[in-house]
Amino acid sequence: MIRRLLICALVMLGPLGLGLIAPAMAASERGLLRDTVAGERIILAQARNVKSVPRSHGPTTREVIAYPSNEKPGTILISNGKRELLVVLPGGKAARYDISVGRDGFTWTGTTYVGRKAKWPEWRPPAEMRKRDPSLPDMVPSGPYNPLGARALYLYSNGGDTLYRIHGTNNAPSIGNFETSGCFRLTNADVMELFENVPVGTKVIVKE
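Predicted structure:
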């Protein structure tokens, strides 16, 4: 325990601390101490370079707006151009959320539905995406570095997975941009709220 405290102190003091203590030690002990202190400094440097874990789910952008619609309440309407997601509410209103959409060449339109949902999902890059970027892994486990964030709604069509998602993100400042590969990205705070209120089978209409 004492040796450990001494090493920690030397790491904090740097060369000055080692210069003060080392002369009183045997040569073999000095060499061992120098190697140990150097190792501790490497570990500390590596720890400082680790990507920080997000401490927030990001802002909530949900707002209720006037929105007369012929779609039944609960239907999700997505606008690529406005970068917004609407959930139709009764009484001519809708809940609106800020989103990120597909970058140039990756936007799409059509009618789908929520085929399944997942909390803290794994991410498995589609084959086409991995072909564009061979550095992508087969799978990214759930957690703070997963690009799907805290929740995912999987969009289906005619019984099959479209490979597009409505999902969260651990990078909240990216919301409101054109930068996905066709998925629709919300803050984790927004997608967690949406997840609880959107059942499997919900109709999703994607427009320009």
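Summary: The CA atoms of residues 46 and 161 lie 40 Å apart.
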